[in-house]
Amino acid sequence: MPDSYIIEVDSQTAGIVVRSSGGYRFFASSDRFNRLEGQLFRNAREAERAARRLVNGDVKEAA
Question: What is the pTM of this model?
Answer without folding.
Answer: 0.85
